[in-house]
């Protein structure tokens, strides 16, 4: 139990160091770097032209349905991991169960494939 | 006292990683130079060895501009969110049997859970810049993540089945005694899927769609300058370090020697050799392969890699069941 706790103390140290480095580097940079503000420097970059319209526009990202399927399959991996770790103790029955579970999801994938969800309709 | 010691070791690793990143960038530019029959960097210092040091110093004294239209808070936060997980995943990497910072029993899960947080940083950076190129870059990064995260995570299930553990240390222990025991032979399909998905996770050529210099200028970090930009680059190269180490551990036997009579050479040497060849491989494909189109990338992930990864899991299980 003590080593278990100790390992997560090390993870906490890594997180603290990971945050410390950007903060320290940017603070040091603030002292070193020049600061010569001009209105032109703070315009949005658009290949040298005046920006046209807003930047954060709504557009068709085309992979909304992929994202829905991602959620389903990502949850599936959550089931696969503990199953794989404990497989030695579970044996053949667990294999059959997992086959049934995955084939249900694969039917879903095949249906999406057939319905041309996995294909961008126009470029 | 032990706490202080741990902090010093972690700081030491940070210095090692920064040194690795400095010379990985130098080496990458040299290798790509040689492949393209150029010389690569050769001006700053002997053989151009101080080129990256000079580049970092230049970035440090660059004026820092945040566009007026940008979402200031998220713009500042995004590089940090991208960088922190890249460094934190290194905590659980075992270099030799007794040199590992945190021997987590869920090591592999810890790695994948944290490494996907970086994508949120990229997406946030793309959105907060309020720039069309960045927005497209950030959205492409999300597209890439949803296509490759699942095959990546599933490709290692075979390795977990073979070793019965998520602890990286135990996974390496199970591959002792010669290269025929390393996981890349019984898990060759998983290994190939893992490499493809891992390069995609790294956002490197041929999957560098989020930055795509020739179409999106620099993609998600087009508005970033100075050290904020440096942290995006740093995160990318720290992930090169992490993924090279992880591939070595999962598939190439970690610190074990390829032939039993070579055991007298210390494990750390073998680890560094395998690690360096993976890093070289990543540079090699960057110089060789063209960028893939975004819809091709998504259909490769969903139509080829995902079904293959699922088949691989069950074929592995059935073989384990037969030979039990």
UniProtKB/TrEMBL annotation, chain A:
<keyword id="KW-0472">Membrane</keyword>
<dbReference type="GO" id="GO:0030964">
    <property type="term" value="C:NADH dehydrogenase complex"/>
</dbReference>
<comment type="subunit">
    <text>NDH-1 is composed of 14 different subunits. Subunits NuoA, H, J, K, L, M, N constitute the membrane sector of the complex.</text>
</comment>
<dbReference type="GO" id="GO:0050136">
    <property type="term" value="F:NADH dehydrogenase (quinone) (non-electrogenic) activity"/>
</dbReference>
<dbReference type="GO" id="GO:0048038">
    <property type="term" value="F:quinone binding"/>
</dbReference>
<feature type="transmembrane region" description="Helical">
    <location>
        <begin position="63"/>
        <end position="84"/>
    </location>
</feature>
<keyword id="KW-0813">Transport</keyword>
<keyword id="KW-0874">Quinone</keyword>
<dbReference type="InterPro" id="IPR000440">
    <property type="entry name" value="NADH_UbQ/plastoQ_OxRdtase_su3"/>
</dbReference>
<keyword id="KW-0520">NAD</keyword>
<feature type="transmembrane region" description="Helical">
    <location>
        <begin position="90"/>
        <end position="113"/>
    </location>
</feature>
<dbReference type="InterPro" id="IPR038430">
    <property type="entry name" value="NDAH_ubi_oxred_su3_sf"/>
</dbReference>
<protein>
    <recommendedName>
        <fullName>NADH-quinone oxidoreductase subunit A</fullName>
        <ecNumber>7.1.1.-</ecNumber>
    </recommendedName>
</protein>
<dbReference type="GO" id="GO:0008137">
    <property type="term" value="F:NADH dehydrogenase (ubiquinone) activity"/>
</dbReference>
<comment type="function">
    <text>NDH-1 shuttles electrons from NADH, via FMN and iron-sulfur (Fe-S) centers, to quinones in the respiratory chain. The immediate electron acceptor for the enzyme in this species is believed to be a menaquinone. Couples the redox reaction to proton translocation (for every two electrons transferred, four hydrogen ions are translocated across the cytoplasmic membrane), and thus conserves the redox energy in a proton gradient.</text>
</comment>
<keyword id="KW-0812">Transmembrane</keyword>
<dbReference type="GO" id="GO:0005886">
    <property type="term" value="C:plasma membrane"/>
</dbReference>
<comment type="similarity">
    <text>Belongs to the complex I subunit 3 family.</text>
</comment>
<keyword id="KW-1133">Transmembrane helix</keyword>
<dbReference type="Pfam" id="PF00507">
    <property type="entry name" value="Oxidored_q4"/>
</dbReference>
<dbReference type="InterPro" id="IPR023043">
    <property type="entry name" value="NAD(P)H_OxRDtase_bac/plastid"/>
</dbReference>
<keyword id="KW-1003">Cell membrane</keyword>
From TrEMBL, chain B:
<feature type="transmembrane region" description="Helical">
    <location>
        <begin position="108"/>
        <end position="129"/>
    </location>
</feature>
<protein>
    <recommendedName>
        <fullName>NADH-quinone oxidoreductase subunit H</fullName>
        <ecNumber>7.1.1.-</ecNumber>
    </recommendedName>
</protein>
<comment type="similarity">
    <text>Belongs to the complex I subunit 1 family.</text>
</comment>
<feature type="transmembrane region" description="Helical">
    <location>
        <begin position="184"/>
        <end position="202"/>
    </location>
</feature>
<dbReference type="GO" id="GO:0016655">
    <property type="term" value="F:oxidoreductase activity, acting on NAD(P)H, quinone or similar compound as acceptor"/>
</dbReference>
<dbReference type="InterPro" id="IPR001694">
    <property type="entry name" value="NADH_UbQ_OxRdtase_su1/FPO"/>
</dbReference>
<dbReference type="GO" id="GO:0048038">
    <property type="term" value="F:quinone binding"/>
</dbReference>
<feature type="transmembrane region" description="Helical">
    <location>
        <begin position="304"/>
        <end position="323"/>
    </location>
</feature>
<feature type="transmembrane region" description="Helical">
    <location>
        <begin position="73"/>
        <end position="96"/>
    </location>
</feature>
<feature type="transmembrane region" description="Helical">
    <location>
        <begin position="6"/>
        <end position="26"/>
    </location>
</feature>
<dbReference type="GO" id="GO:0009060">
    <property type="term" value="P:aerobic respiration"/>
</dbReference>
<comment type="subunit">
    <text>NDH-1 is composed of 14 different subunits. Subunits NuoA, H, J, K, L, M, N constitute the membrane sector of the complex.</text>
</comment>
<comment type="function">
    <text>NDH-1 shuttles electrons from NADH, via FMN and iron-sulfur (Fe-S) centers, to quinones in the respiratory chain. The immediate electron acceptor for the enzyme in this species is believed to be ubiquinone. Couples the redox reaction to proton translocation (for every two electrons transferred, four hydrogen ions are translocated across the cytoplasmic membrane), and thus conserves the redox energy in a proton gradient. This subunit may bind ubiquinone.</text>
</comment>
<keyword id="KW-0520">NAD</keyword>
<keyword id="KW-1003">Cell membrane</keyword>
<dbReference type="InterPro" id="IPR018086">
    <property type="entry name" value="NADH_UbQ_OxRdtase_su1_CS"/>
</dbReference>
<keyword id="KW-0874">Quinone</keyword>
<dbReference type="GO" id="GO:0005886">
    <property type="term" value="C:plasma membrane"/>
</dbReference>
<feature type="transmembrane region" description="Helical">
    <location>
        <begin position="264"/>
        <end position="284"/>
    </location>
</feature>
<keyword id="KW-1133">Transmembrane helix</keyword>
<keyword id="KW-0830">Ubiquinone</keyword>
<keyword id="KW-0812">Transmembrane</keyword>
């Amino acid at each position: 139990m003590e080593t278990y706790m100790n390992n997560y103390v090390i993870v906490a140290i890594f997180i603290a160091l990971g945050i410390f480095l950007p903060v320290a580097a940017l603070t040091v940079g603030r002292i070193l770097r020049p600061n010569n503000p001009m209105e032109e420097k703070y315009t949005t970059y658009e290949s040298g032209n005046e920006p046209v319209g807003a930047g954060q526009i709504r557009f068709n990202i085309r992979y909304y349905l992929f994202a829905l399927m991602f959620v389903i399959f990502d949850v599936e991996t959550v089931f696969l991991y503990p199953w794989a770790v404990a497989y030695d103790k579970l044996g053949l029955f667990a294999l059959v169960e997992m086959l049934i579970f995955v084939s249900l999801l694969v039917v879903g994938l095949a249906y999406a494939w057939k319905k041309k969800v996995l294909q961008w309709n126009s470029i | 006292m032990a706490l202080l010691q741990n902090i010093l070791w972690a700081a030491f690793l940070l210095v090692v990683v920064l040194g690795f990143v400095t010379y990985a960038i130098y080496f990458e530019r040299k290798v790509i130079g040689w492949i393209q029959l150029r010389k690569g960097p050769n001006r700053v210092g002997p053989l151009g060895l101080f080129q990256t040091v000079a580049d970092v110093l230049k970035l440090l004294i660059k004026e820092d501009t945040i566009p007026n239209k940008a979402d200031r808070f998220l713009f500042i936060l995004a590089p940090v969110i991208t960088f922190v997980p890249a460094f934190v995943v290194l905590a659980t990497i075992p270099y030799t049997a007794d040199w590992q910072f945190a021997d987590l029993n869920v090591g592999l899960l810890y790695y994948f859970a944290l490494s996907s947080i970086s994508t949120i940083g990229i997406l946030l950076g793309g959105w907060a810049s309020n720039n069309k190129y960045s927005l497209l870059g950030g959205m492409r990064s999300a597209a890439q993540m949803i296509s490759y995260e699942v095959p990546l995570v599933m490709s290692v299930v075979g390795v977990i089945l073979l070793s019965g553990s998520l602890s990286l240390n135990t996974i390496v222990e199970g591959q002792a005694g010669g290269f025929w025991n390393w996981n890349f032979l019984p898990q060759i399909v998983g290994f190939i899927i893992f490499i493809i998905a891992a390069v995609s996770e790294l956002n490197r050529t041929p999957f560098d769609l989020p930055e795509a210099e020739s179409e999106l200028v620099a993609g998600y970090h087009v508005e970033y300058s100075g050290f904020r930009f440096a942290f995006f680059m740093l995160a990318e190269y720290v992930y090169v370090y992490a993924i090279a180490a992880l591939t070595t551990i999962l598939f190439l036997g970690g610190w074990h020697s390829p032939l039993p009579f070579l055991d007298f050479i210390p494990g750390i040497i073998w680890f560094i050799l395998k690690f360096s060849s993976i890093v070289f491989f990543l540079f090699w494909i960057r110089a060789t392969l063209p960028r893939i189109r975004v819809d091709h990338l998504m259909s490769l992930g969903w139509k080829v890699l995902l079904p293959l990864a699922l088949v691989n899991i069950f074929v592995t299980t059935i073989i384990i069941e037969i030979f039990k």
